[in-house]
Specification:
Blueprint lengths: L4 E4 H9 L8 E5 L4 H15 L5 H4 E5 L5 H9 L7 E6 L6 H8 L7 E7 L12 E6 L4 H14 L3 E2 L1 H11 L3 H15 L4 E2 L1 H7 L5 H12 L3 H13 L6 H23 L5 H12 L5 H10 L5 H20 L4 H10 L2
Parallel strand pairs: 1-6, 2-5, 2-6, 3-4, 4-5, 7-8
Helix pairs in contact: 1-2, 6-7, 7-9, 10-11, 10-12, 12-15, 13-14, 15-16
């Protein structure tokens, strides 16, 4: 059972942007959430808490892999160089649960903010009253649209509704890539205030969703040679696809395949019904004709085969985030392990 308040990631980001609202003493960021949003929350906490002059001195990162309770208590209790300090406990799920529980029971002083990054299973009781647990990273189309407007405004521009829709359809809701593309669009339009749909068509490349499906299919059929060729094509073309996009899109596609396979196994074969459910419950916008194509393409695979591939990719994703393996090597390892 969790004590403390729970919140959506975007609500926390909006709260952190409000100069009138104070910081909480403890933030739990669940690892299962969107990495871009987690990083945004972490950065905004540091922006709000730390004085620029002392940022390097007043930011302390502790890794759960090498956790020491004495070092943690010392980091919490020592006064900052500036007004506040930020302690980041990453990979907290690697800390034994009883030790983590004891660490979290440590009173966080007024001059400190503690960020704990862990999976939901390792989350202990949190006696600290001023604790915020960020457990909802879901994104609706409206949230994505509003976020794009804010990002475009921060670049000194406005954007039409048609242009927003075109960005979302081309980039499939990937925050990191979308932010980069907005910067490119800003440079492209120059002194012109408004970004229009035609600008997006000229500048923004589609995320190669179809190529990713073919890549996954090649791995499921154990055609490693074809999968490696496709990966090389995507990463070494005149407009290469970033490895992080390939990884996140592959995880998203496999997740969709699992949802659809589960529906079919349970007797629901109506593509429109599956599409509506995925949109309402899982916030995944898949048109019925795509649902139909996916359902047909995965007929020959069992749920267990798809799940094994998803877990394998998830494990590799975690290792890249921990810095245990480099991203390009990780994807090749995933392909070769097929």
């Amino acid at each position: 059972m969790k004590q403390g308040s729970t919140s959506k990631a975007l609500d926390i980001i909006n709260e952190l942007n409000d100069a009138k609202k104070p910081l909480h003493r403890v933030y739990f960021l669940l690892m299962e959430g969107n990495d871009y949003l987690k990083k945004q929350i972490e950065n905004k906490i540091k922006e709000k808490a730390l004085e620029e002059t002392f940022e390097a001195f007043d930011t302390i990162t502790i890794n759960g892999d090498t956790f020491s309770l004495n070092d943690f208590e010392l980091a919490i209790s020592c006064p900052p160089f500036g007004k506040k300090k930020v302690i980041i406990l990453s990979n907290a799920q690697e800390v034994p649960k009883q030790v983590l529980k004891k660490a979290i029971a440590t009173k966080v002083p007024d001059f400190a903010v503690l960020i704990v990054i862990a999976n939901s299973e390792s989350l202990p009781l949190t006696p600290e009253k001023d604790t915020m647990i960020v457990d909802d990273y879901s994104i609706t189309d409206k949230m994505m649209e509003d976020w794009i407007v804010v990002k475009v405004k921060s670049e000194g521009h406005e954007i039409s509704k048609e242009a927003i829709s075109e960005i979302i359809s081309r980039l499939d809701g990937d925050f990191q890539v979308t932010e980069l593309e907005i910067k490119k669009l800003s440079l492209f339009v120059g002194k012109r205030v408004k970004i229009e749909k035609k600008d997006v068509e000229n500048v923004v490349e589609n995320v190669p969703v179809q190529d990713i499906y073919v890549l996954i299919d090649s791995m499921l059929t154990k055609n490693r040679e074809e999968a490696l060729k496709l990966y090389e094509k995507m990463t070494h073309s005149s407009k290469p696809t970033p490895e992080n996009v390939i990884l996140s899109q592959a995880m998203k596609n496999l997740s969709q395949m699992l949802f659809i396979k589960d529906f079919v196994i349970k007797g629901t074969k109506n593509s429109e019904e599956i599409s509506i459910y995925l949109q309402k419950i899982h916030k995944q916008n898949l048109p019925k004709y795509i649902v139909s194509k996916i359902a047909k393409s995965i007929e020959k695979y069992s749920f267990e085969e798809l799940f094994d591939k998803f877990k394998s990719l998830e494990d590799i994703d975690i290792k890249t985030k921990k810095g245990e393996i480099e991203l390009p090597f990780a994807i090749k390892l995933f392909i070769e392990s097929a």
